Amino acid sequence: MSSMMILLVLKCLSQIIFYCICFAFQMQTVTIIPGDGIGPEISTSVIKIFEAAKVPIQWEERNVTAIKGPGGKWMIPPEAKESMDKSKIGLKGPLKTPIAAGHPSMNLLLRKTFDLYANVRPCVSIEGYKTPYTDVDLVTIRENTEGEYSGIEHVIVDGVVQSIKLITEEASRRIAEYAFEYARNNQRNSVTAVHKANIMRMSDGLFLRKCREVAENFKDVKFTEMYLDTVCLNMVQDPTQFDVLVMPNLYGDILSDLCAGLIGGLGVTPSGNIGANGVAIFESVHGTAPDIAGMDLANPTALLLSAVMMLRHMGLHGHAKKIETACFDTIRDKKVLTKDLGGNSKCSEFTAEICRRVQDLD
Amino acid sequence: MTYPSRFFCLCDPGQVMRPVMCTRREKSSYTPPPAKYGGRHTVTLIPGDGIGPELLNHAQELFRFCCVPVDFEVVNVDSSLTSEDEINNAVTAIRRNGVALKGNIETNHNLPPSHKSRNNLLRTSLDLYANVMHCQTLPGVQTRHKDIDIIIIRENTEGEYSSLEHENVPGVVESLKIITRVNSLRIAEYAFRQAREKGRRRVTAVHKANIMKLGDGLFLQCCKEVAAGYPDITFDNMIVDNTTMQLVSKPQQFDVMVMPNLYGNVVSNVCAGLVGGPGLVPGANYGKDYAVFETATRNTGKSIANKNIANPTATLLASCLMLDHLGLHDYASMIRKAILRTLSETRLHTADLGGQGTTSEVVQSIMKEVQKGGPLTSEKI
């Protein structure tokens, strides 16, 4: 009994010392999930660049593979969950979704485990990576837990299927509040609610009502509402008219990918997921690219920009600006670019170039 | 139903119009609309709200000028009233005439859910199951992407637009999206038939079956089944978010696209934006027995109503589609040619295309072009 007590005390002491050291160096712990395919390579790139920029972050690497917990329910490994719960901040590479593996996708599991209710994607045109659209600067905020992706489907009779889209007051209010707070904290001028309330009266009507209610408390941010089809129509003609967009799950999925397409695709788009209890996981949204995995050809830009988003979320704006500038300067210069950006350098060369620029900026 | 396979079909202006015998019944699947007497067709006209009334007035004027043998039966549907009598009258009129030309009827989404969208009611009552939109890069219009030529075929009656919603628990609303085998097979069959008739190579089904496994899974399966019967046409599928991403980067890769209702709404608006905006693209809604023509993106245009700045191109091209449907191909191609010639004149572009022309200037120019074309503007038996 007493030996157990001693062990417990020792464990507590070591934890306290650990946190004291972290505090002394002001190091924050971040859980990093490298992922599959090109995930490990681009994660290594990001860690290298952060080292070069002397960011006060301590990485805790974890793997997420679905395991069956007690009671037969699929869940993420407990070490991963524990690490995330402690650090509250995560950076995730691409995870492969196996078909017919018997378990739901890992992204879905992570979302459910940490109640990641908001998916935030800032889309800013990258100077040096030319697309038909210039001057794009908008943010899509998508409700990530309900809506059309509730997964509730039934076969009514043979040949008739019904999918249920679920909209709740609570989730709508939560996402609207997040959107307005984000707008306020990031000096954005307006929030536009995207909906189809002319057709889906009750569901999108509820979402819209909640947005309007929350807008009353944020009079410094302009609030507008627009139909989904009008947003799509205007987005491809003139994306500069949009600022922050908030919307339910499906519209968010479509619109955020549309906006990613405007700036150059998923290879250069950052993304963040905000959860309840202060948890936030930032990720790259492209696939695992198994055909180029392990060949040092991957482009780490998406994960790097997501990591920059993470730094801003943590309040480390100085480091964020430095790394972002180095990354954009490298792309603008066009001398060292990975294949998908139009060059023929390797991932490690691209990373080294960014590291060099980061150190020069010091 | 047969439609001219070429958009710019040139007609010989010297050709004399012969009155068509209305008792001739073809053995093909297409039967002409019923309301045709003395060589003249009767078409229901629903002005709608916003820019609808003024643009449809111009369409009527143009038809009068060109001596098109079409009479319009105007049915007004007032969006401010809550009774459904007016839209039911419109539906009856369309059943009688078989064909309609309409403007968009505004839906005030702040009214209670029992007040349904009038446009949707019209589509479902008449079972106009296929919405067809042909997006093409038009001459004289500046766009970021060139060489776009996509036909979008959208299921028009079910899916997310089923208007079935309920609130079982306060604060929790469920909206039902219905996908049926019958309707999915029907729209897929329509898409492949159209692709074959128009000489198209590829049909792409747009879906989200990785998430909505049963609903969109059923739709995709039906498309695959129909594709098996058309081995000359390539069939592939794409997830809707990837589709929108591809559309804004490389729209030239798409040929014919078929999809359920909501994705159709998104994709057709994206494509309309890519070719120049809502003022340029006409749309058509086809059912087994009826056809209704309108602008593709179904905008009311409240903010520009009655200011003489709206772009009449989409409405007038929709009326040409209607003429083709009625079998009046010569009139259709004559007016279409005139519209496209006017469009290629940049100084006549309306505000949505970056110009300063007015609606009436554009219509006047179209009439002048028609006049230049020759004697088809007068009746010659």
Automatic annotation (TrEMBL), chain A:
Kindly list any coiled-coil regions of this protein. none
Q: Which UniProt keywords apply?
A: Magnesium, Metal-binding, Mitochondrion, NAD, Oxidoreductase, Signal, Transit peptide, Tricarboxylic acid cycle
Q: Tell me which positions the record assigns to the signal sequence.
A: 1-24
The reactions it catalyses are: D-threo-isocitrate + NAD(+) = 2-oxoglutarate + CO2 + NADH
The compartments listed are:
Mitochondrion
The protein's matches in InterPro entries, at most eight in alphabetical order, are given as: IsoCit/isopropylmalate_DH_CS (IPR019818), Isocitrate_DH_NAD (IPR004434), IsoPropMal-DH-like_dom (IPR024084)
For this protein, the record's PROSITE patterns field holds:
IDH_IMDH
- Indicate the segments forming the Isopropylmalate dehydrogenase-like domain, all copies: 29-354
Q: Indicate yes or no for the key word Magnesium.
A: yes
GO MF annotation, one: magnesium ion binding
CC cofactor: Mg(2+); Mn(2+)
Q: Sorted alphabetically, which Pfam families does this protein's record hold?
A: Iso_dh (PF00180)
A single Gene Ontology biological process assigned to it is: isocitrate metabolic process
Of the GO CC terms on this record, one is: mitochondrion
Q: Which NCBIfam families match?
A: mito_nad_idh
Q: How does it assemble?
A: Heterooligomer of subunits alpha (IDH3A), beta (IDH3B), and gamma (IDH3G) in the apparent ratio of 2:1:1. The heterodimer containing one IDH3A and one IDH3B subunit and the heterodimer containing one IDH3A and one IDH3G subunit assemble into a heterotetramer (which contains two subunits of IDH3A, one of IDH3B and one of IDH3G) and further into the heterooctamer.
- UniProt cross-references to PANTHER family, sorted A to Z: DECARBOXYLATING DEHYDROGENASES-ISOCITRATE, ISOPROPYLMALATE, TARTRATE, ISOCITRATE DEHYDROGENASE [NAD] SUBUNIT ALPHA, MITOCHONDRIAL
* Family affiliation: Belongs to the isocitrate and isopropylmalate dehydrogenases family.
Q: What does this protein do?
A: Catalytic subunit of the enzyme which catalyzes the decarboxylation of isocitrate (ICT) into alpha-ketoglutarate. The heterodimer composed of the alpha (IDH3A) and beta (IDH3B) subunits and the heterodimer composed of the alpha (IDH3A) and gamma (IDH3G) subunits, have considerable basal activity but the full activity of the heterotetramer (containing two subunits of IDH3A, one of IDH3B and one of IDH3G) requires the assembly and cooperative function of both heterodimers.
Q: What is this protein called?
A: Isocitrate dehydrogenase [NAD] subunit, mitochondrial
TrEMBL record, chain B:
- Cofactor section: Mn(2+); Mg(2+)
> Which keywords label this protein?
ATP-binding, Magnesium, Manganese, Metal-binding, Mitochondrion, Nucleotide-binding, Transit peptide, Tricarboxylic acid cycle
Claim: Ribosomal protein is one of the keywords in the record = no
All copies of domain Isopropylmalate dehydrogenase-like, residue ranges: 42-366
Q: Which InterPro entries match?
A: IsoCit/isopropylmalate_DH_CS, Isocitrate_DH_NAD, IsoPropMal-DH-like_dom
Which GO terms are recorded in the biological process aspect for this UniProt protein?
isocitrate metabolic process; tricarboxylic acid cycle
Protein's cellular compartments: Mitochondrion
**SMART domains (alphabetical):** Iso_dh
UniProt GO molecular function: ATP binding; magnesium ion binding; NAD binding; oxidoreductase activity, acting on the CH-OH group of donors, NAD or NADP as acceptor
What is any one of the record's Gene Ontology cellular component terms? Answer: mitochondrion
Top-level division of the source organism's lineage: Eukaryota
Please give the function described in this protein's UniProt entry.
Regulatory subunit which plays a role in the allosteric regulation of the enzyme catalyzing the decarboxylation of isocitrate (ICT) into alpha-ketoglutarate. The heterodimer composed of the alpha (IDH3A) and beta (IDH3B) subunits and the heterodimer composed of the alpha (IDH3A) and gamma (IDH3G) subunits, have considerable basal activity but the full activity of the heterotetramer (containing two subunits of IDH3A, one of IDH3B and one of IDH3G) requires the assembly and cooperative function of both heterodimers.
Subunit comment: Heterooligomer of subunits alpha (IDH3A), beta (IDH3B), and gamma (IDH3G) in the apparent ratio of 2:1:1. The heterodimer containing one IDH3A and one IDH3B subunit and the heterodimer containing one IDH3A and one IDH3G subunit assemble into a heterotetramer (which contains two subunits of IDH3A, one of IDH3B and one of IDH3G) and further into the heterooctamer.
Which family is this sequence assigned to?
Belongs to the isocitrate and isopropylmalate dehydrogenases family.
Q: What is this protein's name?
A: Isocitrate dehydrogenase [NAD] subunit, mitochondrial
Recite the lineage of the species: Eukaryota, Metazoa, Chordata, Craniata, Vertebrata
Q: Which gene encodes it?
A: IDH3G
